Each structure stands twice: as C-alpha cells, then as structure tokens.
Amino acid sequence: MTTIISRRTFTTGLAAGTAAAAFGLPVRRAKAAADFTLKFAFNLAESHPITTRAREAAARILAETNGKVDMQVYPNNQLGGDTDMLSQVRAGGIDLFLNSGINVLSTIVPSASIYGLGFLFPDYAAVWKTMDGELGEALRVRISKANLVPMDKMWDNGFRQITSSTKPIATPADLKNFKIRVPVGALWTSMFQAFGAAPTSINFSEIYSALQTKVVDGQENSLANIYTANIFEVQKYCAITNHMWDAFFCVANKRNWEALPQDARDIVAKNLNMAAMAEREDMAKLAVSLKGTLTEKGLIFNEPDTAPFRAALSDAGFYKEWRAKYGDELWGILEKSVGKLS
Ligand code: X2X
Fold this sequence. Notes:
The protein is α/β, with parallel strands linked by helices and 342 residues long. It contains 14 helices and twelve strands. Helix 2 (49-64) links the parallel strand 1 (36-41) and strand 2 (69-74).
C-alpha cells in the first residue's frame, strides 16, 4: 500500500513551515518516529569537537538507517555529572556514554586507567600506537566484563596542562600543598598526592564553580577543555606540563545495545568510530592553535622542564605502587609499547 499524502495536508504543512520561517522560528518537519532512540551523553562542552563529531555521527546514523535509529546527543552534563551518567548507562537510562578510563569508569574497571600514568607518551604517534594496539584491546576486554560494550576507537581528550589562579607552576615545588581539582578517579588523586599537592575530586560539571569560588586554586586539562568549558575565565596561568594524556572510551549499555538489530549496530559502531577518528584530528590541531587563542584571552603560559616532575613521581614510588595495582600482565603489555617504566 502506498501512503497517500493529501494535497490539503501537504499545503497546510508547507504554509505552516513558511510562516514559521518568516517569523524566524524553527521549521518543524513531520518525521516518522524512529524505531530506536539512543541517548548518547557526556561531559564535554557544546563547542568541543567531540560534540560536533557526535552530532555528525548522529545525522549519518539517521540517514543510513533510513530514519530507524535516532541517536540523541546530550553534551555538557545535561543528563548529570559523570558519576550520575555512569550509573545511568549501567542501568540503561543512557544508551551510550563517553568517559575517560581514568575518570569514573575506573571506579568499576580500575585497570582502565593505566594509560593515564604520568609522562607515558611523548606524542600522538606513541599514543595511538598503544591505544589502537594491544593495550587498548586488553582494556576493552576488561570493560566488556563490566557489562558495557566498548566501541573500538577512543575519542581524544588531549594532553593535559596545569592551570592556576594564584601562581605559575614551574617546578614540582610549586605543586606542594597546591589545591587542585582532579576528576573522580584514584589514579588522578594518587598522582597529585605524589607531587605533594592537595587534590580534590570534583566532577567536570562542577569545575567552573569550584574554580570561581576558590574551592580549589587550579585544575589540569587539555587546552580544548580549558577553552570550550571557559576555564580560562577563572584561571590566570597555564603550565604546559603534558603530565598525562587522556581519552574517552565510548561504551554502550549491553542490554540496550543488543536490542538493536545487527545491521543497525554495525551502522552505529561504524559512525561512532569514524567520528572518533575525525575528532582526533581536530584535537591535534587545537592543541597547537589554542595556545595563541588562550593567550589573547589573557591566560599566561609557561613551559616548565618536565624532567623534575617525572622524577618526583618516580621518587614518591608512584610507578611502583601502580605497577602492583595493575599487575604484571597489563604492565608488560604497556611496557611493550612505551618502553621500560620506573
Ligand atoms: O573531567 C575532566 O577534567 C575531563 C573532561 O577532562 C575528563 O572527563 C577527564
């Protein structure tokens, strides 16, 4: 049977659309309801490249599934902070969640944080060789055991830099008792304790107000987040420490994922992975260009010698302690890719 659109319905719809456009209102198109709606949530700002690429993926998924799969993108902690979003993706209220393996995801899969160990990667070539290689695969296996389905490609969250409202951070001594916000993950707290700082775990949803009200004096993040989450407005100095690199796993609630027909799953996974690859390129460019942009916004940059920071972690027994926690198998896989650590 063919659907008959009466001329009357058609012209009425058109007239309404034209009128809406004339008044600058969004034009509502009549759309068949999708068979599957997926909620895709994360903590990043609307203007972060992750959001842009996620929205592109959503449009492609809708087109390639002929309107059957409608992936709705919720950036900027719209569905709650990370701790909350993690509970929701586990319960099935959120279908897809982007989260760092070092962040709240590590509260249920502790080993997922291993790639966040200080000063592991000199550059992006080393990063992707490791995370698209054996280590990334080993971590995805561990995440799967927690009833979450990880997509193959991680989304870049960048090399991290330390910002402060009180003083430039030039040496490890400057971090002594420094009140710094870190995400909610044991490795982060441990690393800044090893530096002698005073870390406080705070979700990204609260970072701006925590800095603004001086609950903490500093934080550490990629330049992309310092810019898109407006952190530069409440911070004065930025030390290019590259002390760690971070990225997000894209994980699906297992039950909801398996409720999708296989062909739809393939289309969703393919487009999420493609979006991650495009976003990696965006981030690599931003890491270079944002220094100028942020300087114009008034942020004062310094480039400390990082060797003493690395030595401080080593001297505090940081690597030794975490080697015991991660275990020899995972540590061996990591060292195969990045070289001996001590
Ligand atoms: O919370 C952060 O600092 C962020 C956005 O970088 C992470 O999700 C780890």
